[in-house]
Amino acid sequence: MGMTLNELTNAICQHIDKEMEFDVASGMAEHALGFFGFYDRIIDNALEPTDRNLFYMFQDYGLLTTESEETTLWDGREWRIHYWRFKPELREKVKDYMSRTRDEEVVVDPFADVYGEIGERIWDRESEKVINPNAFTAEQTW
Q: Residue ranges of the domains in the chain?
């Protein structure tokens, strides 16, 4: 499944802090995605304690979930492996959120009326008639 940087950034903004600066959320998303790469889950042993704390925070806000599996080692002991993965419904929530914010946002172009204050006379080029239209061609007549 894999999340894109933009999707996870928007999810962080939506779930953790709606007032968070986009660059901060993008940095958090990039850091988390650095562990996942192109996979949809990551083994918990790959995380340092500070990174694990970030993942716990993401879990508290509903972005990540954990899963585990057990396997029997060659000597008969049971071994439990813990994984982190993005919640399956997260991508759909992000898409819904992004489509809602696009509908709600009214984009104002500050340069849309850049020529509105200028009168029509400025566009009149009759005063700039060329005196000798063939001045730079081979068809000059002297």
A: 5-101
Beta strands 78-86 and 64-72 are antiparallel
Q: Count Cα neighbours of 62 within 13 Å in the Cβ-side half-sphere.
A: 11
CA dihedral 5→17→55→68, nearest 10 degrees, is -90
What strands, in cross-sheet order, belong to the sheet with 78-86?
Answer: 41-43, 78-86, 64-72
- Determine the topology of domain 5-101 in CATH: Arc Repressor Mutant, subunit A (1.10.10)
**Average pLDDT estimate for 108-119:** 71
At 2 the pLDDT is: 67
Cα–Cα distance measured from residue 55 to residue 41, given in angstroms and rounded to the nearest whole number: 12
Crossing angle for the helix pair 22-36 and 5-15, nearest 10 degrees? 120
What does the alpha-carbon distance between residue 40 and residue 12 come to, in Å, rounded to a whole number?
17
**What is the pLDDT confidence band of residue 142, given thresholds at 50, 70 and 90?**
low
pTM: 0.58
